[in-house]
Amino acid sequence: MDEGTDARDILENKLLPLRRGYIGVVNRSQKDIDGRKDITAALQAERKFFLSHPSYRHLADRMGTGYLQKVLNQQLTNHIRDTLPALRSKLQSQLLSIEKEVEEYKNFRPDDPGRKTKALLQSVLRRDANAM
């Protein structure tokens, strides 16, 4: 944002409320990049900005790249924790199904006349199901 712009209402989640709110960050400017300002110095400058700016100092503990990183990491962790049990259960179910199917083919003999009859019957049933 341009110098002199006040984003307090946005950062306080008043102007356009978001469920999880906003986290302000201060990125390196092109001048900082051209001047080879390193990331550590940029993060220190960001922290100093939020702590010293009259409009943002009351929000300083919930602003900055480090806080954004922490929040995103926590959200990812929560998502994994919430979805992993269902995914694991689904995979175990599929594994059991595949193991059962493999067991059926353990004693498979292509020249078995019963096998040929079963294959023919399945083929006819599939064709009838597709015709409907």
TrEMBL record:
<dbReference type="GO" id="GO:0005737">
    <property type="term" value="C:cytoplasm"/>
</dbReference>
<dbReference type="GO" id="GO:0003924">
    <property type="term" value="F:GTPase activity"/>
</dbReference>
<dbReference type="Pfam" id="PF01031">
    <property type="entry name" value="Dynamin_M"/>
</dbReference>
<dbReference type="GO" id="GO:0031623">
    <property type="term" value="P:receptor internalization"/>
</dbReference>
<feature type="domain" description="Dynamin-type G">
    <location>
        <begin position="1"/>
        <end position="85"/>
    </location>
</feature>
<dbReference type="GO" id="GO:0098793">
    <property type="term" value="C:presynapse"/>
</dbReference>
<dbReference type="InterPro" id="IPR000375">
    <property type="entry name" value="Dynamin_stalk"/>
</dbReference>
<dbReference type="GO" id="GO:0005886">
    <property type="term" value="C:plasma membrane"/>
</dbReference>
<dbReference type="InterPro" id="IPR030381">
    <property type="entry name" value="G_DYNAMIN_dom"/>
</dbReference>
<dbReference type="GO" id="GO:0016185">
    <property type="term" value="P:synaptic vesicle budding from presynaptic endocytic zone membrane"/>
</dbReference>
<dbReference type="InterPro" id="IPR027417">
    <property type="entry name" value="P-loop_NTPase"/>
</dbReference>
<dbReference type="GO" id="GO:0005525">
    <property type="term" value="F:GTP binding"/>
</dbReference>
<dbReference type="InterPro" id="IPR022812">
    <property type="entry name" value="Dynamin"/>
</dbReference>
<protein>
    <submittedName>
        <fullName>Dynamin-1</fullName>
    </submittedName>
</protein>
<dbReference type="GO" id="GO:0008017">
    <property type="term" value="F:microtubule binding"/>
</dbReference>
<dbReference type="GO" id="GO:0005874">
    <property type="term" value="C:microtubule"/>
</dbReference>
